[in-house]
C-alpha cells in the first residue's frame, strides 16, 4: 500500500532501529545501560509536584485551559527572561506557552511555511528543526553547525544560490546533539546578516540552563533589535526535570507569536491547567532547583569523560547540554553510526543514539546522554573497555565488512 505524501517525505526513523534491538536484548535478560534517549532520570523537584497536587484538587482547574498559556505563566516566563537575560517581553503579545519546545517548533513551521519555502538549518541538529518544516512543505538547505566565523561563508552562499530565497534560519545553541555554545558576538553577527537578507530567525534555547564552564549561554534576543525578526523556544523538560509534563515557551517577535497562537488555537487547548500552575511556581522559584540539576549533570559529564577515556574511547567534554557528542572510535568509523550503535548493544550492552539520526553530517559520531547515574556510567565504561579490548583491528574490519552486507 502506498504511503501518504507527508509520510513519504520523512526518512526511516533510525532511532527506532536501535530501540527495537534494545528491547529485544532486554527481553532476553540483558542489562542494557541506556545512554541513548535524552530522557531525564532525575525526579521533578518536590515543591513543583506539591504545587501540581494542590492545583489539581481545585475542580475549576479541570476545565479546558487556554492554548497560549494562563496569564500568570506567561508573566512568569517574561520575568524569567528579564532576570536571566535582561530581555523585556510583553507577556500578552510576545510570550506563548507550548507543549514543549518540540511542539512549538513544529507548529511555528506550520504557521509560516508555504510549499517550497527554503529553510536554512544546521546539520547535524535536533530532528524537529528540519522535519517540522519538511512536513509543512518546506525545503531544507543544510549549514555547518559550528557557531564561529566559519558559519557565515556557507550561509552567504546558501542565501545567494537558493531559489526561492530562504525565509528563515534555525539556530540551536547550546546545540543538541553537538553541545556547541554560541557567543553573544556570534548572535550579533547572525542578527545583522538576517536583517540584511530579510530572514526570520528561530532559536532553540532548550539547554540554556545546562552549562558547565561557569558562563551562562546567552539568548539571541539579547541583541538589540533581535525581536524585530526572531522567536526563541525554551523548555522546562531538562531545566526542571519535567520532560513528561510537556511545558515550553516561544517568545519574541509579536507577529510570529501571533501566527503561532492562531495555529495552536485550532489544535489544542493548552497544557492541563494544574501543570501550568506548577510551572509558574517553578519559574518564580529561587533557582536552587536549576543549580542542583546542573551540578548533577556536570558530575556525570566528568565521570563519563574520565571513565570512557580510560576505557579507550576519547569523548570530548561537552561545555553544555546533557549530551556528549562522541566521535566513533577510529577502527569502527567506516561502519557508520547506526551500525556502530547496534554493535554496542550487541557486544557491550550499552545503548547510544546514532549520529546519522541528527543529519548526514553526524554519521561519524554518536550522542551519549547523561541519563544514568555515575555508577551506571562507570559500568558502561567497563563494558566498553572489555568490548574494545576483545575487538582488535582485524576483528573490527570484519565487523565493518559484515555490516556493509546487511
Automatic annotation (TrEMBL):
Transmembrane portions of the chain: none
Keyword field: Aminotransferase, Transferase
Sections of the chain in a coiled coil: none
GO molecular function: pyridoxal phosphate binding; transaminase activity
Listed SUPFAM superfamilies: PLP-dependent transferases
Domain of life: Bacteria
Entry EC no(s): 2.6.1.-
Cofactor field: pyridoxal 5'-phosphate
CDD domains linked: AAT_like (cd00609)
Domain Aminotransferase class I/classII large: 31-384
Primary enzyme class: transferase
Family matches, as InterPro entries: Aminotransferase_I/II_large, LL-DAP_aminotransferase, NHTrfase_class1_PyrdxlP-BS, PyrdxlP-dep_Trfase, PyrdxlP-dep_Trfase_major, PyrdxlP-dep_Trfase_small
Family in the record: Belongs to the class-I pyridoxal-phosphate-dependent aminotransferase family.
Protein name, per record: Aminotransferase
